[in-house]
Amino acid sequence: MNLSKAIYRERRQRLMSQLGSDNTVAVIRSGELVTRNNDCDYEFRPHSSFFYLTGYQEPNAVLFILPSGESHMAVLPKDPEREQWDGFRHGITGAMQTFGLDQAAELDELDDLALELLDGADHIALLIDDEQLRDQALNWRDQLAARARQGSVAPKGLIDMSDAVHEMRLIKDLGEIEIMERAAQISVEAHTQAMKSVRPGMMEYQLEAELNYVFMKQGARVPAYNNIVASGKNACVLHYIKNDEKIEDGDLILIDAGGELGCYASDITRTFPANGKFSEPQAQLYQVVLDAYYAGLEQMVVGAPYDAFHNAAVQVLTEGLVALGLLNGSVDELIESKAYRDFYMHNTGHWLGLDVHDCGRYKLNGEARPLEAGMVVTLEPGLYVNPDNENVDAKWRGIGIRIEDDILIQENGPFVLTHGLPKEIHEIEALMAAK
Ligand SMILES: [Mn+2]
């Protein structure tokens, strides 16, 4: 599921040209294994920006990119004994051949490699949030400064390359889009399977198992984030991941889950009735959220400001809350006073890519930035009526609804990467009746 090594090489060159200095060296690392408990580690997953620049997926690697784009990397060496226990390593030759690096060295030689490559550089560019690398880079700088009389020239300091990398990652190329649509379609299949297999009386985690089964079977070995399988009032807890309660007849179930494929995330939410049929209040609120979804989608066009789809969704949600009697007053004033936030307390989307909440600025010069072709954004309006909300009729209490798709911004209009998954009430009921 990797892209060609020429693409990674081009990204490294582009990054260096964007840093706009002819003598800066960039450093970035893949990250380390994290312990789960005792001697058990979580499965390794490389840092997204490192992966974006290399395609390399082994831990402990440190990549140096010279101003020309020439790339050197310190990697775990081949080690037959370790590989017998922990599995294959590319080693030095493999790293160079498979990932198009110009030079590779054993991790043991990291300090020597760093001192050689950073000697004479103006600045060291890194992701400023990487505290460990920041300390290491300052240490290399100090070591070079201490060798001034031997002719070494220490870099002046560190610069943050986060913005440059993040802006590159924000616009997806064709290879990335292909992987993202595949990830999206695996998640569509997983949600379809969940809708078909739910029965009142099941536990939430039993429904979650249906999702994980499809993710893994289709090659998305892990979910892109913790699955949310929330029945009944649990849907009002935005990041509910306990998933350990019994699904009751009459509940709505909100599932927010997406598989990760080739390190790319997908992110889908659907809300459907446990017994296959929406009750009248459930259907009424659901239709408001669905109308808000369509109003938002219309704004997901090249050139529209980033906040337009959120504002359009808020408008429709607030109108719906007034029409159904959950809010009283003028729609404009309820939006102005943010009264709708009792029922809709999150934003209507976020960037999506290697990270589920992907990188990239939402504002430029203090203003919502215009949408551009190649951006991928989620569209996820919702309504949540707190079970303890005494201000609304009891029939609404504890209903939580969200509808979320992954949208590719294109010149000719938005493309729903997660297409093919029902969201109309009659479509959902038909799919569930056919089970
Ligand atoms: Mn989302």
From TrEMBL:
It is an enzyme of class 3 (hydrolase). GO terms for biological process: proteolysis. The keyword Cytoplasm does not apply. Keywords: Aminopeptidase, Hydrolase, Manganese, Metal-binding, Metalloprotease, Protease. Its cofactor is Mn(2+). It catalyses: Release of any N-terminal amino acid, including proline, that is linked to proline, even from a dipeptide or tripeptide. The keyword RNA-binding does not apply. GO terms for molecular function: manganese ion binding; metalloaminopeptidase activity. Pfam families: AMP_N (PF05195), Peptidase_M24 (PF00557). Its EC number is 3.4.11.9. It comes from the Bacteria. Belongs to the peptidase M24B family. This is Xaa-Pro aminopeptidase.
